[in-house]
């Protein structure tokens, strides 16, 4: 099967990567169903890269409806070891302005209806998740953004991403609560992905593109889809430049990542006691430990 070490998950407004060459559309089936869309595999900066539109290329899947497990498992089945996730986010801080870029290093989980683990049903594992983003991959991403020196874009190289359930945006009381908790940005998708990527031993980092001030800011209108999409369109070219520069740097040096051995001490159930169908379903994750 086609292989790619680098996966890109494109969020709202980023449904394809223009610079990919020699592309092939791959239909991947997984034990967890089909991913959000066919995966586009192509060459970028001399590397095979796999691109997946998170909500589907016609944006038909709600954050709650996304097949998170299938998406991560499908990328794993293509050989992906690093995921760069591009996402639209609201800003919870004055200094993070719409069109700024944030590479978060923490999450707060406010989701309620997501399946955020491959484990269960006869196999128990608890990954370490204190540092939910791969710091090595995040460093490559922030270095790439700094090197590009994009006009009018400020980089925030850390921050806390509050992941809410949606699909409605937050109330003002919620937005102010998240601010009081120290949240930097808010979105609806990245946390389940980061957890599943870690369980799948894939390094994960987020390129968050600020599109609005959510609804807390007294001098800015409350977030609307129009605002998000408009600002994202303004930023889509920059986002693709950043991803390309990041892939270029990765092509020169693929960093070590603690994510790549995340399951080493995480699985509690002796594997010879795990139901055979679970071993089969989780083959890609477990085979190196069998
Ligand atoms: C279109 S506004 C809300 C929508 O945008 C973000 O999506 P993504 O993370 O895929 O870029 C946010 O999480 C919501 O899903
Ligand atoms: N304000 C916001 N809240 C949640 N998700 C978002 N995506 C973009 N802006 C957002």
How is this structure best described in words?
The structure is a single chain. The protein has 290 residues and is α/β, with parallel strands linked by helices. The protein has one domain: Nucleoside phosphorylase domain (Rossmann fold). It is built from seven helices and eleven strands. It has helices spanning 68-77, 135-148, 172-180, 190-199, 225-252, 276-281, 283-286, and strands at 6-10, 21-26, 39-44, 47-53, 82-91, 101-102, 106-110, 155-156, 160-164, 185-187, 203-212. Strands 1, 2, 3, 4, 5, 6, 7, 8, 9, 10 and 11 form an eleven-stranded mixed sheet that branches. A hairpin with a 2-residue loop joins β3 and β4 (47-53). α2 (135-148) crosses α5 (225-252). The protein starts with 5 loop residues before the first strand and ends with a helix. 47% of the residues are buried. The mean pLDDT is 97. Bound molecules: the ligand CSC[C@H]1O[C@H](OP(=O)(O)O)[C@H](O)[C@@H]1O and adenine. The ligand CSC[C@H]1O[C@H](OP(=O)(O)O)[C@H](O)[C@@H]1O is lined by residues 11-12, 54-55, 63, 87-88, 166, 187-189, 225, 228.
